[in-house]
Write a structure and sequence with these properties.
Number of helices: 4
Helix content: 25-40%
Order of helices and strands: EHEHEEEEEHEEH
Strand content: 35-45%
Number of strands: 9
Distance between the termini: 42 Å
Length: 157
């Protein structure tokens, strides 16, 4: 079977952009077993409460849920097990330094298939305060109102 080219989004962490200021993003691979890959291809995964942590020079993602594959029987693994992320050593060292800074976290933004391989978009993010979230909502609503008014008057592109 030929490998499909391009990027196919599988799962997104929609709340991440609302809860955090995204400073920088990185692409990394995941060390998965065969039944997990089949579940990811079927779109049965969730990034909602996931986060990454650097331990002993390796980076792991915790809290990511990949549903057991229906035909996987004895080969299925724990859906919430921590999974190793595949990155270059210098990138891991840089992420460790950045994540140890006050208020910064490593948050997964998106899980996708790129040329047949499972990839994860990992972000260095700083948590928003409540007033920052309110300001973001107000800016989004104002932008939406402007677009609505422009479209009513025929200024659509």
């Amino acid at each position: 079977m030929p490998v499909k080219k391009g990027i196919k989004p599988v799962a997104q962490n929609r709340k991440a952009r609302h809860e955090y200021f995204i400073e920088d993003t990185y692409e990394c691979g995941l060390a998965l077993v065969g039944t997990e890959v089949k579940s990811v291809r079927a779109g049965k995964c969730n990034l909602k409460d996931a986060y990454a942590r650097v331990e002993n020079g390796e980076i792991f993602i915790k809290g990511m849920h990949i549903s057991p594959y229906e035909q996987g029987n004895i080969f299925n693994r724990d859906p919430f097990r921590e999974r190793k992320l595949l990155m270059h050593k210098r990138e891991i060292i840089k992420l460790k330094r950045l994540s140890e800074a006050d208020g910064y976290s490593l948050i997964p933004l998106q899980l996708y298939l790129k040329d047949g391989l499972v990839k994860l978009e990992l972000a260095v993010a700083k948590g928003k305060k409540l007033y920052d979230k309110r300001q973001s909502i107000a800016e989004r609503d104002a932008k939406r109102d402007v677009e609505r008014k422009l479209s009513r008057h025929g200024y659509d592109d």
